[in-house]
Every structure is written in C-alpha cells, then in structure tokens.
Amino acid sequence: MAVGRVWRHLKGRKRRREAARRLYTAAVRQARDPTLYTEGGVADTLDGRFDLIVLHVVPLMRRLRQCDEAGRQMSQALFDVMFDDMDQSLREMGVGDLRVGKRVKQMARAFYGRAMAYDQAFDLAPGADRRRSIAEALERNVFNNDPPAADRVQALAGYVETLLDALDRHSSTALLGGELGLPPVPSLAAAPAAETSP
Taking the CB of the first residue and of the last residue of the chain, which one, N or C, has fewer CB atoms within 10 A? Predict the structure, then answer.
C-alpha cells in the first residue's frame, strides 16, 4: 500500500514537472519575441534575455499561486524548471562546474529581488498607480536604471498589464495542465507625433 502511494506521488510529480516545462517553454517563447528588443528597448544580451524571462515567469507564478495548493506546487515546479534550464545553459556556454553553482545562486538572488519588486507593483489595483509602479520596476530591473525614452517604458508597462489581465482570465485547470496562451506582443514603438498645420 505504501509503495502504491509513493508510486502515485512520483507519477504526480513527473506530470507536474512536464506541465511546468510546457508553461516555461511558452513563457520563454514569448520573452524571445523580437519586438521586445527592437521596439521595447531591451538589450539583446544574456542579462536582457534573463530579465525578460523573469518578467514573464513572475506573473505566471503569481497566477499559479492563486490556484490553491496544486498551484503553489506548480509554481515551485516552474521555478525549478527555470533554474535547471539556467544551469544547463551556462554549462553549454562552457562555464565550469565550480562557477555554474555560483552563477546560478546569483541569478536566483536576482530573480527573487525582481519578483519582489514586480509583485508589489502587480498587487496594486489596475490604474495609473499600478502602471507607474510597473514602469518604475522595469526601469530599475530590465533597464538597469538606464531606460529608453519614457514612452517605450510606458508601452512595455502596458504590455505587462495586458499579460497580467490575460493570466487573470486564464483557466486554472488549463494552467495546472501546462496549457498557456499568451496575448501577442503588440508594437512597442513610439507613435509618430501628429503633424500640426502652420
């Protein structure tokens, strides 16, 4: 009997990890959308890519935590999948074993710091204050206090709000099953100034 419970537990963990991997893959695919770099002003560097992955994973983990215990377990599985991927990516880049552990710990600290900043902004009621708080968090984290033009930052903050709204509407059952549909990344380019007649 005990063996049966252990087997079911292991099968459940395996299914959860597979679902978390699908969620992570969808989040990474969205984070790699060229528009975020070319129009959004995010640097196409290792740090920039990491920050955009974090920017998509944190709202997803936040939404999963709203799905009771099963969601909290899935959120943890998503975190584990993400950092397993970071570990593997560093090794593929030729980082030595001793340095990989140190780098992964640094990335985990960066993740937690960003997650805290984003969650504080996301918890505000929709409106101007939340948009401003998201934009400030983007300036500090994604843009490392060297942001592009303010309208680009505001456009990216608007996209993040669209992402939050889409996740709030997303079926909990689908998320727990590893199904994630995200809204397409809109144009983030500044709208041309209207011409005025002489």
Answer: C
